[in-house]
Structure formats: C-alpha cells, structure tokens
Amino acid sequence: MRAGDFGAPSEDFRVARFIDEASVSWKVVAMKRSFQPEEANVILQIPLGRQHYEDKLIWNFNSCGIYSVKSGYLLARSFYADAHSRNAAQGESSTRGLISSHWQNLWKLEVPRKLLLFLWRCSNEILAVGSMLRSRHLPVDPGCPLCNSDLETPIHLFGACFFARQVWYSSNLQVDS
C-alpha cells in the first residue's frame, strides 16, 4: 500500500523510516516505493536538518498538538462550512448581494432572539419537519400531519398547507391571500 492510497497508514509510515541517519539524507528507493512519484519528488526536495529529533504524532489543528474530539469536530465543521460557501459562491453570483443583505436585514430586526433563530432555521431548512427528518434517515412520515397531502417542509408548514393558511387568516396579522 502506498501512503497516498485510501486507508489508514501503518506504523512504519513515520518520517524516520525514510531517513538514512548515517548520511542524514532521504532513503530515495524507500520513498519512491512508498509514495506516488509526484509526492515522492516533493518530499525529497525537503531539506533535512543535522539535529536528530524523535518522531512523534502532532495534530496540527489545535495549539497543543494533541487530537481531541472537540478539535476534530471543529475541523469537520470548518470543512463543511468551506464546502458550503464554495457551493454557494458558484453559479448564483448575481444573487449573492441580495442574499447577504437579506441576512443582514434579518439580524437587524428588533424582535426576540428566539424568533430570529426560528426565521434563520426556516430559511436554511433546518427545522425538525417531516421531510428533513426523513432525509436524515429517521423513521418518520415525511408528509404533512395536518393535511396529509404534501411533504412537510418549512414552506409548506408555514404557508402552503391549507390549515396553516387558515391559522394565518384567522390571526390579527394582515395576511394577503
């Protein structure tokens, strides 16, 4: 198995395995056997220092160098956020300014924080409604429990559903049809 292949590398994939301690140089043959040619060439260009340090595993994603579930979680969230922002930036660039101003206006509203978070969750379709729960492989009926006709989505639940519209119309709010 090469280091670049999928799967966990074995214990012998430590840097010391690829350094000739006597000459303080890379073991070129071992390097080329263990890595893809491009990877091996890049690694072989890294200069080696004269001082010997013991090999140890270091987690680069926190200041103490030790893996924790929290640092792994934060890293995974940042990967997700990066991928999400890259996807959002592609294609719909003409509406990015509108979306950005939409969020800025939303957070400026002088309403209870609970309502802001609720509106944000509705906009991002992360409410615990049937369709979203089913998409996360939970054993629930994805249909609307009120009208039994459509998928229960935030848009359906708060506007498209016949029963939801009746609630809006009977409220003190002035809701257009």
Structure description:
The protein has 177 residues and is mainly α. It has a domain at 1-69. It has eight helices and two strands; from the N terminus they run ββαααααααα. It has a two-stranded antiparallel ribbon with strand order 1-2. A hairpin with a 4-residue loop joins β1 and β2 (25-26). The longest helix has 21 residues, at 69-89.
Task: Describe the structure concisely for a colleague.
By secondary structure, the protein is mainly α.
Question: Which regions contain 5 or more consecutive residues with pLDDT less than 50?
Answer: 1-8, 92-96
What's the overall average pLDDT, rounded? 76
Q: What is the helix content?
A: 40-55%
- The fraction of residues in strands falls at under 5%
Strand order within the widest sheet?
Answer: 1-2
Computed Rg: 27 Å
Q: What is the succession of H and E elements?
A: EEHHHHHHHH
Q: Count the E strands.
A: 2
Biggest beta sheet attributes: 2 strands, antiparallel
Count, helices: 8
Structural class: mainly alpha
Distance between the termini: 65 Å
Specify the overall morphology.
Answer: elongated
Organism: Davidia involucrata (Dove tree)
Protein name: Reverse transcriptase zinc-binding domain-containing protein
Domain Reverse transcriptase zinc-binding: 101-168
Pfam family, one: zf-RVT
